Amino acid sequence: MKRSRLAVETSLRIKQRSPIHADLAEILITKSLGCFCLLSPREEEVKRQLKAYHVSLLTSLAELQSTARALQTQLAMKEAKQRRLLLLQDEYRKKEEELLSLLSSSSSPPPLLDEQKEEEENRGEEGKEEEEGSGEEEEDSREGKKKPSTAKSKKKKIEERREALAMERRRKKSKEREESVRREIEELSLSILQEHQHLQKVAL
User: Fold this and answer.
1) Cβ neighbours around 21 below 10 Å, total
2) Rounded to whole angstroms, what are the CA distances from 128 to 133, 135, 199?
3) Are 43 and 27 in contact, with CB atoms under 8 Å apart?
4) Is residue 197 part of a domain?
5) 156 occurs within a structural domain
6) Is position 93 within any domain?
7) Residue 95: which domain range?
8) How many CB atoms lie within 10 A of CB 48?
9) How confident is the prediction along the chain (204 residues), in pLDDT tens digits per residue?
């Protein structure tokens, strides 16, 4: 009797959930009451429908699992794109700061360390002029016709030319670096735009 009650309750729940199984619920009730007989054509049809429904459920489950895996893959791609976008935006910000620093430093005098470095680089270029100036000074000294004012003037001109060359070289290097940073900023801007587009596609 307990078995019959369980079968009846189960069949009623099935009947409530799916109208397709209304006939099956009735059959289960009949079987639970002890009427064991050969399957009728109606029972065969219900059994066939139940099997088809079961196959349909398995197919739907497989599709859902496939969709879930695809969504997980999309989510992982989206997270990777977001991390990439954040890195690009951070690099873009740093390059902008570097460019602003270069633009501000181009209008201000260079540090002393850079001046010393430039002077060392220019010594080879200016050595000939210094030797010529010192040679003339020694020649005048030997002849007893030393001219302090002329020597100081030449030395001053050499220093001025050296400073001008150093400043020009610094301006050239700064300009080259500015152009390089501008190109990098343009490339980063394009990359950021592409990442935004990829994110929109992933979201769709």
Assistant:
1) 20
2) 9, 10, 63
3) yes
4) yes
5) yes
6) yes
7) 77-119+146-204
8) 10
9) 444 555 556 656 665 665 555 556 556 555 555 554 445 667 777 778 888 888 888 888 888 888 888 888 888 888 888 888 888 888 888 888 888 887 777 665 544 445 555 555 555 555 555 555 555 555 555 555 545 668 778 888 888 888 888 888 888 888 888 888 888 888 888 888 888 787 777 655
The DSSP secondary structure of 126-189, one letter per residue, reads HHHHHHHHHHHHHHHHHTT---HHHHHHHHHHHHHHHHHHHHHHHHHHHHHHHHHHHHHHHHHH
- What span, in angstroms and rounded, lies between the C-alpha atoms of 85 and 91? 10
Residue 78 in tokens = 């989206």
Number of structural domains (the chain) is 1
User: CB–CB of 62/49 below 8 Å?
Assistant: no
Please name the residue that has the structure tokens 């005098």.
Answer: 109
Tokens linked to 126: 């200016």
Record the tokens describing residue 28, joined without a space: 């289960």
| Structure tokens given for 82 | 């977001």
**Which among 122, 151, 157, 148 is positioned nearest to 134, based on CA atoms?**
151
Residues in the chain: 204
> Would you say residue 129 lies in a domain?
no
Neighbour count for residue 185 (Cβ, 10 Å): 16
pTM, two decimals, is 0.45
